[in-house]
Specification:
The structure holds two protein chains of two kinds.
Chain A (H helix, E strand, L loop, with lengths): L3 E4 L2 E4 L5 E7 L6 E7 L5 E8 L5 E2 L8 E7 L2 E6 L8 E8 L10 E2 L3 E5 L1
Parallel strand pairs in A: 2-11
Antiparallel strand pairs in A: 1-3, 3-8, 4-5, 4-9, 5-6, 7-8, 9-10, 9-11
Chain B lengths: L3 E4 L2 E5 L4 E7 L6 E6 L5 E7 L5 E4 L2 E6 L4 E6 L8 E9 L1 E4 L3 E6 L1
Parallel strand pairs in B: 2-11
Antiparallel strand pairs in B: 1-3, 3-8, 4-5, 4-9, 6-7, 7-8, 9-10, 9-11
Classes of the chains: A mainly beta, B mainly beta.
Amino acid sequence: GAVVSQHPSWVICKSGTSVKIECRSLDFQATTMFWYRQFPKQSLMLMATSNEGSKATYEQGVEKDKFLINHASLTLSTLTVTSAHPEDSSFYICSALPPRIPGNTEAFFGQGTRLTVV
Amino acid sequence: ELKVEQNPLFLSMQEGKNYTIYCNYSTTSDRLYWYRQDPGKSLESLFVLLSNGAVKQEGRLMASLDTKARLSTLHITAAVHDLSATYFCAVDTYKYIFGTGTRLKVLA
């Protein structure tokens, strides 16, 4: 399958600082990327959908001013957690979707980023 | 709001036994995916189901999709310890909505 690289794998930051997470599709162009958050022993919750060159669409209850998403190119999307607080500590996972064609609808997932805010 | 529910949420089973995990969803879709997640890891793709009646098998796992019933199943045959993990289904309505997850523990 296609490769999606997420960086960093883990990060520890102090409360009040900002953290940027990168999601790159290495061998295909991703017209759409998704960002998920997963708390321990829970499912993946969709945070936002980003399309290259346009503003991200945030799910209900997700603060767009806190979780800044940029999808500046067809191979890179970034999630910036601004003014991080301990409750933002979580596992963040991105996925990238190649252009949809019949028989090809599968998105590919990054390795995830473990964020710990102290 | 789309809901995707899995049953059971927790499953402890003996090696060699069979069991089925169910994934029910509340809206129309003919695309559904199954994933495995090990602790601290991201998702591993297991099955891609793209039409009503789709059935796929890989090793001891078999997945099926009934779009009319809005139901997918993941059947485990002769479980082994290595299958211990959390299994998620995800419904594709352009964006992926994940099920609640099933934590499977296979006892030796």
